[in-house]
Amino acid sequence: MTPVEIGISSIIAIIFLIYLGVHIPIALGLISFVAIWIMRDSADLSFALLKIAIGDSAMEYTFATIPLFTLMGLIVSKAGLGADIYAVMNQCYRRVSGGIGMATVGANAVFSAVTGSSIASASVFSKMSVPEMLRHDYNPRFAVGVVAGSSVLGMIIPPSAMLIIYSFVAEQSVGEMFLAGIVPGLLLALAYIVAIWLMGRFTPGFIGGTNIESRDLMSWSEIAKKTLPIVALILVVLGCIYTGWTTPVEAGAAGSLLGIVIAALRGRINLRSLWEIVIETGHITAAILFLITAASMYARMLGIAGLPNELQNILVSYQFDFFRIMLIFVVLMLFLGTILDTASIILIVVPLFLPLIDSMGLSLVWFGIVAVVAAEIGLLTPPLGLSCFVIKATLDDDRIKLKDVFLGALPFAFVMLLVLILLIRFPSLSLAILN
Prior knowledge:
By secondary structure, the chain is an all-alpha fold.
């Protein structure tokens, strides 16, 4: 077999193993290790590249962003800031048709700015938003669908774990990736709110619900008390990065410290719970480090096999222009999204297209935003749809089936696709803050 054939067979084997349930880093690392061994007939080379991959991952200064932002996200969830911002947003949209759904989107957007996790958002808002909507006679499918749709904001609005992983794969600045994700994330949140308004106007049966008129309104002092902590966190983290006062690593440290202070002042954390959060942070960080190391090994295997160059030659020979290339990329991402999770898609597909995008003189930062949004659509589509499974498991309500979650999330997946097309057509949307 030629190196190209071995490389293609390796990708198929990786996808097959992941689909069978093998952990992503094990599938990536093991198959890549064996493929390099076969291509070069040298186990020593495979071990040498594995050593380099581990060193490049663990010794990178920017890798410290992962444990620090993970720690901050866990502390913020512990402090109950998600419930606070949801209560405020719920009051803002109380008289609008579909208002609780809009409040969920707005609260998710703010919550994402300090957690960076779609799974955390799906879990938190399933417990808060869905029961509230059902209590006001909203359609159960809409209730779970809006939570599923808005949960993906956690992977686009910085700090985002997926943007961090992409920055390692593409060797781009974490800070630039964070800044590039702000406008697309806010654009997607706005698109969701507009979509809910349109559904309330033209398909009220899908939304259902009654306006919240009679409940007690919060005073301005209560609103300030609930919003100031999370606003302070956002200003400290993103404000310091944007102004250049701190690096992303330093901003993550400052945000974690501020989160601990807020949680302590609220009486939501003690030494024991802090220690549990630190242990959980360690587990998550180790898993991500393992993932990045395996992805580095996979990228080296692709380079040795020559697959990126082969893909580039094929596309050039057929004289594919920019939009045809992006169409192929998006279709591939959407297809894999039906069987694989977001991290797997990013790690498998992106290294294949990076050299081609770079050779076309396109921004790899912009490409990262496009890749993450395209991969995130997979969180809402069957059969894998990770966010949908998390919502179903969190609710544990026999009245709501997994089918209802997927059908409810379908309109929001379509909105994501429209936003993705805009981001591809107008790269300046992703690069506006950087220019």
